[in-house]
Write a structure and sequence with these properties.
Radius of gyration: 22 Å
Order of helices and strands: HHHHHHHHHHHHHHHHHEEHHHHH
Helix content: 55-70%
Strand order of the largest sheet: 1-2
Largest sheet: 2 strands, antiparallel
Oligomer: single chain
Strand content: under 5%
Structural class: mainly alpha
Number of helices: 22
Number of strands: 2
């Protein structure tokens, strides 16, 4: 392990974070004169100073990183980023959170989970509201991918960071020959979608501030809002449909957007089996949700049932977590159906959470193959994605991920139950945080403020595991990783 080189890169990344994440809220606090300016200035100084302290003594260390170093940097960076992100919440008079609550809010933003411990968002300073949304936007694609685009100019290889941080089981497929160009391509698409989303929200009736803020959390599949009522505050079907369109786009594989843009054709979407499964699955959930809302007369008119049903199916299914109504109070099986939809989540290479659509597809196909093998024991039955036959190593990795996911989920569920939470609350809280969804059921439906500090810390770990796809964190706990 190259400790000096790792500390140098960690310092650089913290300095990037201090400038990109803490300076914009300084400008917002100054513009609105909302009383939080001093808190952000102190947070900026502390984060920048920490980065400098790590970088200066090691600035001459320019050794090429190994994959092992990439895993360590990612884990250290997300941990230190979560701690640095707590500073404005701790220092500002409003919301004036304690350390555990501030850490929960910070990690929830950075991991694009969208769970919150803050009650009374409508009364918070504009700069704090903007900061929460910005955390999600930068965490959405992964600030490390942004850093990968500029680190090569500083003499640092980026492929190790990209492999360790980018979500999905097929992360070695690069869009361009060089990793820096890949990162830039991803961010151009990400930025373009964000600008288009903000303009669409503004045209649909949001104020410029709300349009920008909600575009951040929509494209990031984050779900934070500037209001306690989330998207329900606006009472606008037009705004909700704008959100649906951009949630669907953000939940798709960004490689598809890049290929479609480069070829100026929709053909890549039509030919991609994961994307077809993704749209079909969300369409089925939306159809069932809307149909049951109509059947039970939950809303007064069919139009309301239609747009609420579609919105919640897409929002929860893509793990965004926006709400237009208290879906946890909907009748029958709907709350559980929507929660289960979040387990599938977005496509690989998207900003969505969950298991990822491609993994669920492969699990189904592997299960079907095992049934066929009972009938034809000697048959050669390859698993294909589109026209590509998958290496058995990929299928094994998917099963390995799924088994670890189930094990982690079960352990965290038991711990949360031991803190005194009922089973519905505990199950939904773990699901919502491990899938980076946000809103749960039971006590954690509206917010997470009332659960115990131990439960919040466990859920902080769940959010990190979900964001970094479990393997990236758990690999650090294996003795083999630390052997020379």
């Amino acid at each position: 392990m190259q400790t000096a080189a790792i500390l140098r890169i960690l310092g650089l990344l913290l300095m990037v974070f201090s400038c990109t994440t803490l300076l914009p809220p300084v400008a917002v606090a100054w513009w609105y004169d909302d009383g939080a300016l001093e808190a952000f200035l102190i947070a900026f100084g502390l984060t920048l100073g920490t980065g400098l302290l790590l970088w200066l003594p090691n600035r001459g260390q320019r050794h090429e990183m190994r994959l092992r170093d990439g895993f360590i940097i990612v884990a250290l960076f997300w941990g230190s980023l979560g701690l640095s992100g707590t500073l404005p919440f701790l220092l500002a008079e409003h919301p004036g959170l304690g350390f555990i609550d501030a850490l929960f809010e910070s990690l929830s933003g950075l991991t694009t989970t969208g769970a919150t411990v803050i009650v009374g968002l409508d009364e918070l300073p504009r700069s704090i509201l903007f900061y929460r949304q910005e955390l999600q936007w930068l965490g959405g694609m992964g600030i490390i991918v942004l850093a990968v685009a500029i680190l090569p100019m500083l003499g640092i290889g980026g492929m190790q960071l990209y492999r360790a941080e980018t979500p999905g089981p097929m992360k070695d497929n690069k869009l361009t020959p060089r990793i820096a160009e890949t990162a830039k391509a991803l961010w151009y698409i990400y930025l373009g979608l964000t600008i288009a989303c903000a303009l669409a929200y503004w045209a649909a009736g949001m104020s410029p501030f709300d349009a920008v803020a909600h575009s951040f959390s929509t494209v990031a599949i984050g779900g934070f809002s500037t209001y306690d009522a989330s998207m329900g505050h606006f009472q606008s079907a037009a705004i909700e449909m704008v959100a649906v369109i951009f949630m669907l786009l953000a939940g798709a594989n960004f490689a598809l957007h890049f290929i479609a843009w480069r070829s100026m054709s929709l053909r890549p979407y039509r030919e991609d089996s994961e994307f077809r499964f993704y749209l079909g699955w969300l369409g089925l959930v939306a159809l069932i949700t809307t149909g049951y809302l109509l059947l039970t007369g939950t809303f007064d008119d069919p139009g309301s049932a239609l747009h609420h049903g579609i919105f919640q199916a897409v929002s929860i299914g893509t793990t965004t977590g926006f709400t237009t109504a208290q879906y946890q109070d909907w009748p029958g099986f709907l709350p559980l159906l929507l929660l289960f939809a979040s387990f599938v989540g977005g496509c690989a290479g998207s900003t969505g959470g969950g298991l990822k659509v491609i993994r669920v597809m492969l699990l189904f196909r592997q299960g079907y193959r095992e049934i066929l093998r009972l009938i034809h024991p000697s048959a050669q039955l390859p698993i294909k994605v589109g026209k590509t036959t998958l290496n058995e190593r990929v299928v094994e990795a998917v099963w390995g991920f799924f088994s670890l996911y189930v094990a982690v989920f079960s352990i965290m569920l038991l711990i949360l139950s031991a803190t005194g939470l009922d089973l519905v609350t505990a199950f939904s809280a773990v699901a919502a945080c491990l899938n980076n969804l946000g809103p749960g059921l039971g006590e954690v439906g509206p917010h997470y403020a009332d659960i115990s500090p131990v439960a919040k810390l466990v859920l902080c770990v769940a959010m990190l595991l979900g964001r970094l796809e479990i393997f990236t964190v758990l690999v650090l706990l294996t003795p083999a990783f630390w052997r020379r």
